[in-house]
Amino acid sequence: MKHGKKYVESAKLIDRSAQYDVTEALDLAVKTGSAKFDETVEVHVRLGVDGRHADQQVRGAVVLPNGTGKTVRALVFAKGDKVQAALDAGADYAGAEELVAKIQGGWMDFDVVIASPDMMGVVGRLGKVLGPRGLMPNPKAGTVTPDVAKAVTEAKAGKIEYRLDKTNIIHCPIGKVSFGVEKLQENFDALLSAIVRAKPAAAKGQYIKSCTVAATMGPGVKINPSKLGG
């Protein structure tokens, strides 16, 4: 794969054979995020579990102390008083059947979907649309809850969901290059602490196998997994 000039220059700052501590790695990610837009810094964590087994799944959510730097558009499935409560909390859209029809028609102008438990029968009809996009509400992520207003507030404040992909890796944004190292590290620590707490009892051996951080257009920077508490 051929990379551009900026990527090649950025890559020279990184020793590909080295494993850095968190602060050094984030500093390099910031320095190599040199695009004309404010790049997102992402964390990629490979875990020593087998997600094909239900008792080794790792999934949850955490509120990043400094947010993600992204404006989150929240859609809420609710009825009665909860519709207004969600809108008062900052939801961009709230309703019931009319939203199902709109989404089935191809409308997708939202980033997170929240539902009260009594609406999951309705939301279930959207499984094939929302599921592949990672937008299906889930109790473990706190997006199926009686308190939809609280869920909206948390989503707007920078709550992110973490979950294993098919290769047992978790991919999560922890902010923007413009945040600087200190705020990125606070967000990184919050995410990693949540992942460590979510370690399945069935997981054997080394839990955190590898960890890499990278800006959107920058090269990956490896972090020493032995220092991450896994």
Strand content: 15-25%
DSSP E strands, number: 9
Name the CATH superfamily assignment of the largest domain. Answer: Ribosomal protein L1/L10, rRNA-binding domain
What CATH calls the topology of the largest domain is Ribulose 1,5 Bisphosphate Carboxylase/Oxygenase
Give the strand order, joined by hyphens, for the main sheet: 7-1-8-9
The separation of the N and C termini measures: 33 Å
What's the shape? globular
Please give the radius of gyration in angstroms. 19 Å
Which structural category fits the helices and strands?
alpha/beta
CATH architecture tag of the largest domain: 2-Layer Sandwich
- Report mean pLDDT, rounded to a whole number: 91
Please give a quick description of this structure.
The protein is of the alpha/beta class. It has helices at residues 5-11, 22-32, 81-88, 97-104, 120-123, 127-130, 148-157, 180-197, and strands at residues 40-47, 59-63, 74-77, 93-95, 112-115, 159-163, 169-176, 208-215, 221-223.
Describe this structure in words.
With 230 residues, the chain is an alpha/beta fold. The strands form three sheets. A four-stranded antiparallel β-sheet has the order 7-1-8-9, covered by helices on one side. It is globular and about 55 Å long. The protein has helices at 5-11, 22-32, 81-88, 97-104, 120-123, 127-130, 148-157, 180-197, and strands at 40-47, 59-63, 74-77, 93-95, 112-115, 159-163, 169-176, 208-215, 221-223. It contains eight helices and nine strands. Helix 2 crosses helix 8 (180-197) and helix 3 (81-88) runs parallel beside helix 7. It folds into two domains: 5-67 and 160-227, Ribosomal protein L1/L10, rRNA-binding domain (Ribulose 1,5 Bisphosphate Carboxylase/Oxygenase), CATH 3.30.190; 74-156, Rossmann fold.
